[in-house]
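Figure 6 in text form: structure in, sequence out.
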């Protein structure tokens, strides 16, 4: 199993958990993943939610939005050696305003997914340019 780096100090500028990211930036399938982490531990996805921008880093928005003490993905990653120290997850705090749940983040994100507005399009264009530069 690949190593998972701890979350960055703050969620990236296009994180679907951020309240200030425009709706419609990501594909609907990405937003559909978010509410699954709201479920009781045994019903959650088995994987750590990774940052869309930083290869191998856990999503800071995910760590800030969800109770990491109840995270199945975090528990499994620790037990399999992909995460050596879970403390950065448990102690994670950010001043960036986040949605209170994955369901709230997803509901906001899908509002304009069919026709992203100009602000969302600017974020999308920036992501595409960054991806193409790799």
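Output sequence:
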């Amino acid at each position: 199993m690949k190593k998972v780096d701890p979350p960055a100090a703050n969620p990236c500028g296009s994180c679907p958990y951020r309240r200030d990211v425009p709706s419609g930036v990501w594909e609907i399938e990405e937003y559909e993943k978010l509410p699954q982490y709201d479920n009781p531990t045994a019903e959650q996805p088995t994987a750590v939610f990774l940052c869309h921008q930083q290869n191998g880093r856990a999503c800071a928005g995910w760590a800030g939005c969800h109770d990491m003490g109840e995270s199945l993905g975090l528990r499994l990653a620790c037990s399999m050696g992909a995460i050596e120290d879970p403390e950065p997850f448990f102690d994670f705090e950010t001043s960036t305003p986040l949605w209170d749940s994955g369901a709230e983040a997803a509901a906001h994100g899908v509002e304009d997914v069919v026709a992203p507005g100009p602000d969302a399009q600017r974020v999308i264009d920036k992501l595409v340019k960054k991806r193409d530069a790799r």
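Caption detail: The mean pLDDT is 94.
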